[in-house]
Model the fold of this input.
Amino acid sequence: MAEHLTQKGITKEKAERITRLSITELEQKLQSGELSAVEVCECYQAVALEVDRKLNCVVEPIWEAEEMALERDQKTGKKGPLHGMPVSIKENYYIKGYDCTAGMQRCIGDPVSEDAVVVKVLKRQGAVPFVRTNVPQTMMTFECSNPIYGRTLNPQDTNRGPGGSSGGEGALIAAGGSILGIGTDIGGSIRIPANMCGICGLKPTAGRISGAGTHKLTKGQTLVKSASGMLSRDVDGVTMAMRALLCQYMFDLDPTVPPIPFREEIYQDKKPLRIGYYLDDGYIPSVPSMHRAVEKAKSILESQGHKLIPMQPVDARRMFRLFLDTVGADGTKTYLTCMTVYEYWNHALDIEDYKDDTLALWRSLGIDAVICPGFAFPAIPHNTFGDLVGGCVYSTMYNLLNYPAGVLPVTKVTEQDIKDMANYPNKTKFEKNIKKMMLGGTVGLPCGVQCVALPYQEELVIRLMKEVEQGLNGDNS
Done:
């Protein structure tokens, strides 16, 4: 492919010039015809190839991408909202003619016969899926390594992982090799890479975006559902993807998806909100840089007229136990053999009770949304997931509750943050492991804030993300 792109006249300078455009600038140039879909595709292929040499984030090109781009250029009449837009796709999405392995060797050599619904909709809306990105084996970890494709590195620090399970997406987008990517999230798999790589990611309410045609590792487990979502360099990319995907074509392809189009009136609303916030969840303390990120977002939102109310989420330890008992690292095999139907029924009731308790808390505070740390800490060194798994209590909470949540970068770890680690708790195993990790060269790593709303209020989440992003004015240091 590299030789082909050179023959096509894709110089490094041209590729960088096009791939450095914001997604709104790129959209305008594609819609106007100033840039062709083919040249944009080729430029992103070139940069993705270069990024992959350094980070190992791409599992394979989508070989039909250039042909698809040419079809976009030859199209007459009205252009789709994503006309010519290159999109990277997480490996666990079905793409016709390609293996879908989730990093497991037993799935090699079994190409799927049909595109995932999301891939079909992207194509219908004019997008050009151009590469597939790496995942951890089984996708139940926030590292990113598997025996087929190897380990993906974080562009901010190659000694650290990009997060997971949409880690290939996080690394590729953060390094400039993609402008918009599609992922899944059952425990933080979109939001953790967004936090650790310094980009934006949205986990919608499970079911708002179709998940038909994705690798189902825990098929039949319905208490905590995986959500299809997106990652992008900025909030505009997330918004653009949501607008395009929430269309009648998706509702027709997957009748289980509620036919709710993107609601501009919610996204554009200027009404002041009551927003809850917390710096840590009362179970696994988040680190000082994450506290500072939330405080920074809080100040921005207050300056825009919103009322920020301190709060503490409902018993995070209880939530994490419920989550782990539902979505085990072994695909719930051990769990299912240990529980009777009656016990499983009671487990489902416990989850319902937790949801009821959380909604009651929100109602008692009169809040419309919540902001909190994007994760307990920034990117972690390779092979340390087992020592730091407790950090995902910040993301799994909103999978168990099935609340939409998005993460955006707000700041970076400073020397002062490291000095402030002297006051970080040092009693539990997790606290000791987190402290050790933070003292091991984390200065400069990105730290994100998570914005959360009630089910099916994705437009409100994106509104808050955009308001925080605008308030930063490009200063996420």
Notes: The chain has a mean pLDDT of 95.
